[in-house]
């Protein structure tokens, strides 16, 4: 009987699962859509029980129920860094506060920078304090929800919460911990002496392990809920963008993943630690590895906003119309900062702008401008990678936005770089299944599981118009930033 590895990933807008054989054969896959809550401008939240655990249980049951053979190992991953406070019985005390798209803790970022020193934080943690960081959100919780703060005993990210429900173990991987800035020391690979205790105070911090290490075994209670046999090993897991990168073989220095999802996320694999203020320096997925990461606050979310505004039921019709609009979208230019912006601006009060509108423009032009705006944002971030000494040598695209072809062609044209596409765009859940295989001691090769099948080549004829568009894109933010900030102040 062949081994069978289950990988489940909780993303921002959906949860996906896959069952894989050691040779990479995908036995079955499943997905469940969900939404994230936006209770106030700048806030973004998930219900951990309903979304994280509820989706996991539903997908695990749907994938394993038809099987006559048991799962060999379970891999988990999920959105992060996120903050889910729980009480002494690990019951969520409030909705989870999501990653950098949640910008509520701006005052707390300023306070911690003043107290600890911005340079000291970047040097010790590997990255600056931004809306992505956990430390400021903990301080926000203490200030604004004191009763929740008083009752908080543990803090979870999505993967650690799943591990806790499955195994009873309280453990977080080193990579995710390295994004819990400034609680983690990325030089010592441990919780930061002094800082962690001062910020987390009475909260118990999880033990640390690597993503492919066994976190624990499925308990009888979890087995009854999920259908996964008791005693099945479960990986520690990690943040979904890093399992997504793993799923397409981004692990060698110079490899860069472009993840086309609700947000655009970019990861460069490194063999040495680098600190670059416009980017996030993190610990890698495996011991001895590191990465630089960048993330836009929206990408697919902006495209979906245009789709809904245009009254379209799906993207296909809108993409066809955008395909008829020429490069440059007939003179339209968009800033895609509809939820502020993360790297490299780190400006939570940035706002979206659509410049150049006339009565002749149609929804295809607007949609193309939105796709081009995300491509300009990718170019801005990749320039920051190069400036940090991490020049991208190979770009690998993954995620739901790679289907259809238009978006990836626009990005390659704006970058004037090719992008590799792999056979299976399932993404992070496949990377989680790969971690499960490693946990089980299987001899597996992710490049064999998911080989490159397509190369998206740039069209040199479009280089000049996109070079000009990119220069205008950079100018538009700087020329309108004061107005954007003034308008953001009205949006409460």
Automatic annotation (TrEMBL):
<feature type="domain" description="Carbohydrate kinase FGGY C-terminal">
    <location>
        <begin position="257"/>
        <end position="439"/>
    </location>
</feature>
<keyword id="KW-0119">Carbohydrate metabolism</keyword>
<keyword id="KW-0859">Xylose metabolism</keyword>
<dbReference type="InterPro" id="IPR018483">
    <property type="entry name" value="Carb_kinase_FGGY_CS"/>
</dbReference>
<feature type="domain" description="Carbohydrate kinase FGGY N-terminal">
    <location>
        <begin position="5"/>
        <end position="242"/>
    </location>
</feature>
<dbReference type="InterPro" id="IPR050406">
    <property type="entry name" value="FGGY_Carb_Kinase"/>
</dbReference>
<dbReference type="Pfam" id="PF00370">
    <property type="entry name" value="FGGY_N"/>
</dbReference>
<protein>
    <submittedName>
        <fullName>FGGY-family carbohydrate kinase</fullName>
        <ecNumber>2.7.1.-</ecNumber>
    </submittedName>
</protein>
<dbReference type="InterPro" id="IPR018484">
    <property type="entry name" value="FGGY_N"/>
</dbReference>
<dbReference type="InterPro" id="IPR043129">
    <property type="entry name" value="ATPase_NBD"/>
</dbReference>
<dbReference type="GO" id="GO:0016301">
    <property type="term" value="F:kinase activity"/>
</dbReference>
<dbReference type="InterPro" id="IPR000577">
    <property type="entry name" value="Carb_kinase_FGGY"/>
</dbReference>
<comment type="similarity">
    <text>Belongs to the FGGY kinase family.</text>
</comment>
<dbReference type="InterPro" id="IPR018485">
    <property type="entry name" value="FGGY_C"/>
</dbReference>
<keyword id="KW-0808">Transferase</keyword>
<dbReference type="Pfam" id="PF02782">
    <property type="entry name" value="FGGY_C"/>
</dbReference>
<keyword id="KW-0418">Kinase</keyword>
